[in-house]
Amino acid sequence: MNTAIDPEIREVMDAIHYRPALSIILPLEPHISLKTEMAHTLKITADKAERELHEYYPDEQCEVVMKKLQSLIAGTDIPVKKKGMALFVSPLFEKVLYLDYPVTERLIVDESFEVRDLLYNAKQDVKFILLVLSALESKVYLGDHTSLTPLLSNIPGSVYAYVTDTPERVSNFSDMTEHNQTIVDKFLHHIDEELGNLINERHLPVLLLGAERILGQFKKISKHTGQVMDYVEGNYESYTAVELTELIQPHIAAWKISKQQDLLKRLDDAAGQHRLSTGIRQIWHDVHNGKGKLLIVEKSYRFAAQHGPESDVIEAATEPYDHFAYIRDAVDDVIEKVLINGGDVEFAEDGALEQFEHIVLINYY
Description:
Blueprint (H helix, E strand, L loop, with lengths): L6 H8 L6 E7 L9 H20 L2 H16 L9 E7 L2 E7 L6 E5 L5 H9 L3 E6 L4 E6 L4 E3 L22 H30 L3 E5 L1 H10 L6 E6 L7 H32 L3 E3 L1 H8 L4 E7 L6 E3 L6 E3 L9 E2 L2 H11 L3 E5 L10 E5 L2
Parallel strand pairs: 5-8, 8-9, 11-15
Antiparallel strand pairs: 1-2, 1-4, 2-3, 5-6, 6-7, 10-16, 11-16, 12-13, 12-14
Helix pairs in contact: 2-3, 8-9
C-alpha cells in the first residue's frame, strides 16, 4: 500500500524548488506555555536560521526568506494537543504544519524542503482500528501507539438490537441455544459489514480483542481477516481506554517487527526477479528514470553528494564544495522523487540494510 501522504505535506513536496529552501521542525512539549516559551524558542530558531542562510547565500536572498519566516512566525496560532510543528520557507513558498506526532528538532537549509523526518515520524506513529468484541457488545476505537479514542461508526454496539427477532415460543433448550447463536451471528455479520466500510474509509489495519470463542466465531464469518494485525484473546469489555492502551503495547511492537520482516521478504523476492537497485548512486540514477516502486532506507542514513554531468548522476561530495552542485543529503531528494512518482517509502533500523549499502530500491520493472 502506498504511503498515505498528508495533503499539506504533499503541498510542500510539490512546491517549486528554489534556493534557499529553509525547513524548521520543532517539538511542542505539553508543559510549554505556547504564548511565552514557544515564542522565545521560535525567536532563537529564527536567529539560527538567519546565521546559516548568510553562511551560504547572498544577502538579498536571505532577506527575502527571513521576511517570510518572520511573517510565518508572527501568524502562528498553535492548536492544543499538537506534538510538533514544521515551518517551510523559500523565496517562492511558505507553509507551517502542526503535527500529531512527536518530532526531533531540526533546522535545514538546502535546495529542497526536508520532509524525510515528517515521513519517518508518521510511519512510526502507527494508527489502527481497535475492535473489542463480546457476545453482548462491541466497542471501537481509533488507536495509535500512545492513546485510544472512541471512534464514531455504524458498527453496532449491542446484541440486544437483534433480540427482537426472538420467537414467542421455543420448543426446547436446544432450540433456544440455536436461536441465541443465530442472534449472535447476525450481530457479528453486521459488525463485519460495517468494519469493512470503516477499513475502506480509514485505510487502517485492525486489532481485535475478545474471548477465544467469540474471536473464533468472528474469524469464520469475517471477510476482512486480511486487514487484522493481531487477535488478543481475553475478556476486555470492562477495560478503560487507558487499560486497553497498556494491554496492546506488546502487540503493536510485534506488528512493527512483522512489518520489517515482510519488507525483507519483499527484498528477497525482488532480488530473485532482478528488480533491485542498491547504493545511493545507482538508486539516484534509477529513480530519476522513473523506476522506483518501493524505497527502503535505514532511518539515519544520509549521503552528502554533488551533481554529476547529467541530472541522473551524482558523486560523493568532496571539498572544496561547489555550492551550486552540492546536495546536502541525496537520500532526502530520492525519497521525495519516489513519492512524487507514485512509489512508496519505508524505513528500516540502522544496520538492517548493510548488505545493500544502507538503501535499496525495488523497481517497477
